[in-house]
């Protein structure tokens, strides 16, 4: 974290740093922000302060928060600022070996893929894909863990 902005609330300084990351592309459109606990550790701040910073970014339409899923950078805001045209899609896909290893799940687990295509005129500038376990896969993983724990205790 850079030198704090004296006379400015701590949450505002954190929001400003995250804003720089979003607007510079270090956190690309549609990207998932790190969890509150990771941000609290990075900025050496309480989770309440991190929540205030995220709320400030939400007010400025830089991020959107989905309950139980996390906070994502808002591709629409980023594209309006750059004068680009954006298309966002979401679909369910099956995890290949690489994605299964990353998510510590089995090959074929259901994932949610979010894709954002940014265009300038007729040219594609960027394509961003983000993945997360679907609630169905999370429930199956939880049930498998519970049955494994039960078998281990017996």
TrEMBL record:
> What Pfam families does the record tag this protein with?
GntR
The UniProt keywords, alphabetically, are:
DNA-binding, Transcription, Transcription regulation
Q: Which residue numbers delimit the HTH gntR-type domain?
A: 8-76
The record, for SUPFAM superfamilies, names: Winged helix' DNA-binding domain (SSF46785)
What CDD domains does this protein's entry cite? WHTH_GntR
Keyword check for Protein biosynthesis: no
Highest taxon in the source lineage = Bacteria
Which Gene3D superfamilies does this UniProt record tie to the protein?
A: Winged helix-like DNA-binding domain superfamily/Winged helix DNA-binding domain
Query: What PANTHER family is this protein classified in?
Result: GNTR-FAMILY TRANSCRIPTIONAL REGULATOR, MANNOSYL-D-GLYCERATE TRANSPORT/METABOLISM SYSTEM REPRESSOR MNGR-RELATED
Q: What is this protein called?
A: GntR family transcriptional regulator
Q: Please give the organism.
A: Micromonospora fulviviridis
Q: What is the lineage of its organism?
A: Bacteria, Bacillati, Actinomycetota, Actinomycetes, Micromonosporales
